[in-house]
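Notebook entry, cofactor series.
This is the third protein in the set we're modelling with a bound small molecule. For this one the ligand is zinc ion. I'm keeping the input format identical across the series so the outputs can be compared line by line later. Sequence and SMILES below, as received.
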Amino acid sequence: MGLKLMCVIAHPDDECFGFGGALALAADRGIETYVICLTDGQAGSYRAGAASGEELGKMRREEFAASCKTLGITRHEVLDYQDGKLVTVDFSKAAGRLVERIRQFQPDVVITFGGDGGLNTHPDHMLVSMLTTAAFHWSGQSKRYPELGAVYSPQRLFYLTTNFFIPGRQEPKPAPWTVTLDIRSVQARKAEAFRQHASQVPLVEQTKELFEKFGVEEFYTLIAAAGTQPARQETDLFAGLEG
Ligand SMILES: [Zn+2]
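Returned structure with ligand:
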């Protein structure tokens, strides 16, 4: 059995501007990848002339699929939560939907946003972090959701973090990183995936310079792993793991 990576995000385009490097690097190594996006981005600030949230959501689902294809992602899925409203979801139910998917897919490594909400401190990103963290742990516990399949415990959970901020925006308090990923070999593909999000072109343009300057690396923090240990600096999310 080969290694598997699961990535949980809030909006179409999180998969590329946030996690694109890690996902494309994994794909290049033959690691199976599964991206779960909780909303279809109906409440996006950039509307691309869409007449309704529903229309924008439909557009963004297609852009998400095209971006995942560019990154070489094996499996992708958009759930039906409302963009901008993840703080209102039934926590236990939403975490259960992730538990079910972790038990089915059986990833070795799970990646998601940190509790800071990422570079733009989006509350949806914070909620994705919390739901994924709960699901990561509950998936391996037999008392939790016994009706949702056999328990399965992924080996590692990482949060996305950053070494820069977006000028003029509320600064997050990001976690110190434990993994520095050199993503130069996939940097062009990450940028190309971002361009698949045609409805979000103003955002792509706005952040272009920042990503050109800081985009050679992605940073992650190890949040949970088997055993007890001090934090170590690594250059690979899968260091020491065998498929
Ligand atoms: Zn987002």
